[in-house]
Design a protein that fits this description.
By secondary structure, the protein is an alpha+beta fold. It is 31% helix and 21% strand.
Length: 499
């Protein structure tokens, strides 16, 4: 979040595979000469796609190394004594590099999207907090966001001194100003992960994952944590321990920004559920009264800007009002694209403006709003019809949150269970947990409207009646993330009880 506004949403699915950064030992299934590419089996339902240009210049070295490891000829992950082979031809043909049935190491460059399998690369890289390790290379590259020439020279010279032989390095923006000990530790961690891949490769049989990306908590902190972070809020002890471990190792000066909450629903406490619902629907409303209509087709995303009931008494000129509305919506569009992780082609139909200077101002404003977006993007100037086209890197499926619902009470049938019957249903569950489960302390999580129903009145209070009737400690918790007739029981240890 930035200034209390949600700007990124990351979800972790347990046992998720085929994530960006995962390295697999794959088997070539089919060559496609007219595309200069091949399909590779990495264990996914659909074969993954590997283009010749994504093999990487040092593919011959990587391929030779993996063959030696699998064959038992390479006895160390260290590349110091490994003889690098010449770069493959830049404009070569896929059939000259691989053949049907070849077993090759590949890395997920884009996750499976829609009906397509993963997109692959054979230019293996291992990302750290400050550095990215590039095996089979001797280059040292720097982030273009590091501008100071003296700092660029310092970092470049330092990396040439400490990097292992035949291991290239890309220096990330976060490395700016960091001491040698911090960079050396990060490099050591990356070399250690390369060693893990080497060990897995020795006994691997295609298709098989040989190196997994870090868990979501670590990758988000690794890629996003910077000096601007003021708080990290966590409501899970295990995750809190992981975050604390990461901060202690990578950013000890930030340890005190970790805040642990006891609340069950952290998204409720920070109004995130409401922002998700407001930002992922077809219509996105702005406080001023303007709104966006966001449509997703197979080929592209289309966004229509509408002034709605936006009014500004100080602006009498229609052109100036259109400019202000467009700039306000441009800021929201930049946020929504990043939040939804929209990729590919995005066409935005802004409110028409006749003044060329105003069109230029809008274009400049949109580019400024998108500067903080780390995904590669290109913002074209407005067309003669006032449409701005954007291309944005797509490496994951667009984030989707269902914001249109059937009636949560009747499931679209037009009838609902009477409140008193729903109350009886919960009481029956409560009686069962007391008599059969021998529980003496429970927490009941319900929708806020149900919570109000159960606690209404001083004398006619259902919650108090239940406590007295069954002689147990019963805590009631309201959660707006639940549907109206949804409820959950938790035991004294906070574990959900499946009824």
């Amino acid at each position: 979040m930035h200034d209390r506004a949600l700007i990124e949403l990351h979800r972790e699915t347990l046992n998720q595979q085929y994530g960006v950064g995962d390295v697999y030992l794959g088997r070539v299934r089919k060559l496609i000469p007219h595309l200069n590419a091949c399909f590779v089996d990495v264990g996914y339902d659909k074969d993954a796609f590997l283009h010749y240009q994504d093999l990487g210049p040092q593919f011959a070295s990587l391929n030779a190394f993996s063959r030696k490891v699998i064959g038992g000829e390479q006895n160390s992950a260290d590349l110091m004594g490994f003889q690098l082979l010449p770069d493959i031809a830049k404009e070569g043909k896929i059939k000259d590099a691989v053949g049907h049935g070849y077993v090759i190491p590949v890395q997920i460059a884009k996750e499976p999207i829609s009906a397509k399998g993963p997109r692959l690369t054979s230019e293996i890289t291992i990302a750290g907090r400050y550095l990215v390790l590039v095996p089979f290379s001797n280059k040292v590259s720097l982030s273009s966001r590091i501008i100071d020439e003296d700092e660029r020279s310092r970092l470049r010279d330092l990396m040439h001194k400490i990097r292992p032989a035949n291991m290239g390095v890309i220096i990330r923006t976060q490395a700016e100003g960091k001491k040698m000990t911090e960079l050396d530790q990060d490099l050591s961690d990356l070399v250690e992960r390369w060693g893990e891949m080497y060990k897995a490769l020795k006994s691997a049989r295609a298709p098989q994952r040989v190196l997994g990306e870090l868990d979501k908590t670590s990758t988000v902190l690794r890629d996003l944590l910077n000096a601007d972070f003021s708080h990290i809020h966590v409501n899970d002890e295990t995750v809190a321990t992981d975050v604390k471990t990461f901060l202690k190792a990578s950013a000890p000066e930030k340890e005190n920004i970790l805040k642990i909450h006891k609340t069950a629903d952290l998204f409720d406490a920070f109004n995130i559920h409401r922002q998700i619902k407001a930002s992922f629907g077809k219509q996105v409303n702005l406080k001023s009264g303007a709104y966006l209509i966001v449509e997703h087709t197979e080929a592209m995303h289309v966004i229509d800007v509408n002034s709605g009931n936006r009014k500004n008494a100080t602006v009498k000129d229609q052109e100036e009002n259109a400019l202000q509305t467009n700039i306000e919506c441009a800021k929201e569009i930049a946020r929504v694209m990043r939040l939804r992780d929209m990729g590919g082609i995005i066409c935005i139909d802004f409110i028409d403006m006749q003044n060329r200077e105003n069109q230029r101002k809008l274009h400049d404003a949109l580019r400024d709003f998108m500067k903080t977006d780390k995904a590669k993007h290109n913002v074209l100037a407005p067309s003669k019809f006032g449409v701005i086209e954007i291309t944005r890197e797509r490496v994951r499926p667009v984030t989707k949150v269902i914001t249109t619902e059937k009636c949560p009470s009747c499931d679209g049938k037009g009838v609902v269970q009477a409140s008193i019957l729903f109350s009886d249903e919960m009481e029956n569950s409560l009686r069962f947990l007391k008599e059969e489960g021998n529980h003496t302390s429970l927490r009941l999580s319900v929708h806020p409207m149900v919570e109000a129903y159960l606690t209404k009145g001083f004398w006619n209070n259902t919650l108090k009646a239940w406590k007295k009737k069954y002689g147990l400690k019963l805590e009631l918790e309201a959660s707006s993330s639940l549907q109206l007739l949804e409820y959950h029981f938790y035991d004294s240890e906070g574990e959900e009880i499946n009824l």
